[in-house]
Write a structure and sequence with these properties.
Elements (H helix, E strand, L loop, with lengths): L1 E8 L3 E9 L5 E10 L13 H20 L5 E5 L1 H4 L4 H12 L4 E2 L2 H15 L7 E6 L4 E7 L2 E8 L3 H7 L10 H23 L5 E5 L1 H14 L4 E2 H12 L3 H4 L13 H15 L3 E4 L4 H11 L2 H7 L4 H12 L4 H20 L7 H13 L11 H11 L7 H12 L18 H19 L8 E8 L4 E8 L4 H13 L2 E2 L2 E9 L1
Parallel strand pairs: 1-4, 4-5, 6-9, 9-11, 13-15
Antiparallel strand pairs: 1-2, 2-3, 6-7, 7-8, 10-11, 12-13, 14-15
Helix pairs in contact: 1-3, 4-11, 5-10, 6-10, 7-10, 8-10, 14-15, 14-18, 15-17, 15-18, 16-17, 18-19
Length: 508
């Protein structure tokens, strides 16, 4: 039985989930752990402090060791608000890799919201209709709305329990008098109202809150009212009560985690103002978090698992939506993607590279999007395409994955990629090397459908003499323009994985 794990490195805490993938592709959770580390201690958006990074390294290394002892492979690792906004983000990621031996991927705010929503709607029994899911973190809040086929609207707001506490601090003892509390609410309202308006138009039928902040608030309310839900009126009353208390007094409230006593008021106000903005009278609670969404998203990339859970893969939906938005030629995009994947597979089978199925997937999606820049300017569409992919919201993709696709789009024509080129900025050395190596595949695949007629039925790669490769295209009609395109591509880039390419065409 396959066993996988996910680590979620947040602003306030780090969480681990280890689960078995059952034969029917559902997940059975076997380990669920959390440690409070306050990675976002200090000003969020500035430098992560050394002592905070030390705590993160120790906690994450411990979780990786535990997951490995339990036999989990792969171990997925994502970092959210504190890391993605840090001035020393690259240093933090390098330190985490050195401490744990695995790569931590920065998860964009919108992607974080989508994954949390996915975890909730796939694990909870909910009323029919769209569900609004609210995730209150330490540095950001995510609001997503949609059904089991995916979130239709996702908003990420730079507002969370730690960030709001830093922006509108209490007095020295942790109390919020009437003026401080009013300022706290005004600050939160100003930052969520546009996002709540957009989510509100989704027409949700139920609201679910998640995260450690929400868990504490629901536990406090349950201890006081015995109700499993939390009404807006009860939340407001709870805030008014907690605001008058010192931090030490709040730490003794039944149901609270004492480690959250200093930030719980700000977290509660964030949730309150989101509910007000949505026009929601109450919320249910779910223990599902980002790590649950990460695990589900991983198995949903498989065709058989998608049959169980239903729906088109979210990554494919993201790419097709972007392609449609910029009126891309879908048939040409699919043809180039098909040929690129075939070239990738054959060259890997020949032992010319060892890139993974994940790299293959990014190549295929980049091939789908390689021409979207034509909507802005045909003559420089490679550069415009790079910008469009970089700046687009692409649910299902980590920031580094979107950057890899954008780089492939950038170099599918004209200038070849080389270390230090601005088009590779932000990519790790390994990612840069991968883009440099597989760019020729995308160029050849594009040239093989130069007329956008789909004339090339298949492509074959064979070993030639010495350090050469033979590329053969089987077509259902003469392909003079494709042949010209191939020779032009080979003039600019004559090799593939270090082998000089010769080309020939055959009739089907």
């Amino acid at each position: 039985m396959e066993r996988i794990a996910a680590i979620d490195l947040g602003t306030n805490s780090v969480r681990l989930a280890v689960a078995d993938v059952l034969p029917d592709h559902h997940l059975h959770l076997i380990r669920n752990s959390k440690e409070m580390i306050r990675l976002g201690a200090g000003q969020i958006g500035g430098r992560l402090a050394d002592d905070a990074l030390n705590r993160a390294e120790v906690a994450c290394a411990g979780f990786v060791e535990l997951a490995q002892q339990l036999g989990a492979n792969p171990i997925l690792a994502g970092a959210t608000s504190a890391v993605r906004e840090a001035e020393n983000r690259d240093e933090a990621l390098q330190r985490l890799k050195a401490a744990t031996g695995i790569d931590f991927h920065v998860i964009a705010g919108v992607e974080e919201g989508r994954l949390v929503h996915l975890g909730v709607v796939m694990n909870e029994v909910l009323p029919d209709g769209p569900v609004a899911v609210i995730d209150i973190g330490g540095g950001s809040a995510e609001i997503a709305c949609g059904g089991r086929d995916g979130a239709d609207v996702v908003e990420s707001v730079k507002l969370g329990a730690i960030r709001l506490t830093q922006a509108q601090p209490p007095d020295a003892k942790g109390r919020y008098g009437p003026k401080r509390l009013a300022a706290l609410r005004d600050y939160a309202r100003d930052r969520v109202f546009r996002s709540t308006e957009r989510v509100g138009r989704c027409g949700f039928t139920s609201v679910v809150s998640t995260s450690g902040t929400a868990e504490n608030l629901f536990e406090i309310a349950r201890a006081a009212t015995k109700s499993p839900g939390l009404s807006g009126a009860d939340l407001t009353a709870l805030i008014n009560t907690m605001a008058r208390m010192t931090t030490a007094d709040r730490a003794r409230i039944p149901g609270i985690n004492p480690e959250r006593a200093d930030i719980i008021v700000a977290g509660a106000v964030t949730l309150e103002q989101i509910l007000v903005g949505l026009g929601a009278k109450s919320s249910a609670f779910s223990p599902c978090t980002l790590r649950d969404g990460m695990l589900l998203d991983f198995i949903l990339r498989r065709g058989a698992a998608r049959d169980v859970y239903g729906g088109t893969p979210v990554r494919e939906r993201s790419v097709r939506r972007l392609l449609s938005r910029f009126q891309g030629e879908e048939a040409h995009a699919e043809q180039v993607a098909r040929l690129a994947r075939s070239l990738f597979d054959q060259t890997r089978d020949l032992g010319w590279h060892a890139y993974t199925d994940d790299d293959r997937e990014l190549l295929g999606y980049a091939a789908m999007l390689h021409d979207i820049g034509i909507a802005i300017s045909p003559s420089a569409h490679h550069r415009h395409g790079h910008y469009l992919v970089t700046s687009a919201t692409l649910p299902g993709f980590a920031q580094n994955e979107a950057a890899v696709m954008a780089a492939l789009v950038r170099f599918h024509r004209k200038t070849l990629p080389r270390p230090g080129h601005p088009g590779l900025a932000g990519l790790s050395p390994a990612e840069q090397g991968m883009v440099i190596d597989i760019t020729p595949i995308l160029r050849l695949a594009d040239a093989l459908d130069r007329t956008q007629s789909g004339a090339v039925l298949s492509v074959r790669v064979e070993r030639g003499k010495g350090h050469t490769a033979i590329l053969t295209a089987e077509a259902n009609a003469p392909i003079p323009y494709e042949t010209w395109g191939i020779h032009r591509a080979l003039t600019a880039c004559p090799t593939i994985f270090g082998r000089t390419v010769t080309f020939r065409a055959e009739s089907a």
